[in-house]
Write a structure and sequence with these properties.
By secondary structure, the protein is an alpha+beta fold. The protein has a domain of 123 residues. Helix content is 15%, strand content 51%. It is built from five helices and 24 strands. The protein is elongated.
Length: 421
Amino acid sequence: MAAPEPETPPPRRRRIGLLALLIALAVLAFALHWVSRPERVARLILAQVGSALRLEITSSGASEYRLRGTPMLTIRDVVARKPGDATPLLRADRIRLELPWSTIRARGADLTVRRIELDAPQLDLPALQRWMATRPPSKQARLPTLTDGLRIVRGRVAGDGWHVEAIEADIPSFHPDRMVRARLLARFTTGELRVPFDVRAAMTRPAAGAGLGVVGNVTVLSPPWTMPMRARLSGRLHNGADGIGLDAMRLGADATYRNGDTDLAFTYGIAGPLRVFDGTLRVAPLGAVVYGSGAVPNLQGTGALAFGDSLSLQLDGTLSSWPRAWPALPSPLGESTSPLPFALDYRGRADLSATTALRLRRDTTRFDGSFKLPSILRWLDAFDSASPLPPLNGRLSSPKLDIAGATLEGVEVEFGEDQAP
């Protein structure tokens, strides 16, 4: 028997199959054309991230991406701002992201990132805090996991009248529920004051209430003097309506004041709740202690500190004794072993060059006046050849003083920094 002839597909079925093939090829060609334009991929990803964070994020520079191995995206000239805010909270010359395929397929369910690199990021702290005020509480916020860490070069953070520049940061890895370690190099700047530092930090986990520890080298530069120190900082991370900062903050350092041939070593410590809100740093109430030798007195006190476009410091405390390196006090002040209560009030530039109000008392003798720290430091630097009287302005009153064998009663002494001794 003859074999049956094969059935010929109906013309309609052939046309439908051909049309489907052409559509598939067209979609594939369009997809290949679309993904061949990195700037389009970047715009899509930035739009997705901006929608999730409620930010307007744009990129005006050339973008790159890689799909082989671990997918990588590089975007340049990035600007992020809170909608309606004139000041961007973040600018960056370059952001590089390496995302595992599992993260891409998870579509937000998995926030694992291999590595993030930031070139020249500029963070505006007041703008950042305005945006953070619109975010959900920290308990609802999700943090990514960075398996290969974070690297920042040439970073900058701007506050109110101050900024931290030349930031170099390296975080080997970052996990929301694990200890995080980092190394940070930067330079704090306000006016003519410079404070470069190189520190290492560790926190028990990146969340409010977690413990933070920082240790490293810090140098205060205010020509002609410098003050290198080995500093230690600890506290618990805080994030609330009153700003970000540290609870139970403790800062201690072994420092040396240097100016020409003058070297004055001392140890100091401050403690209190630290807050940064709207670009201003505050510590109130503040506890402070200084242990010195030579011309540096031993003192302790309490008060408040605020630093933004200027520095404000109020301190009420006690000098435990009159330093032996200072000019000897006349009798009976010199023989007294009583502590010396003081009150200090400074408002001005961060280099402490403005006028400081000072009230000092021993027994029934009182001084009420002011001084300028640069003048006091110059007087200390030339102590052996300078006037025995410090450069002060104010009035000293005492019921009795013994001077050069004479007893003076009802003494009133006027001090003037610009007057001849």
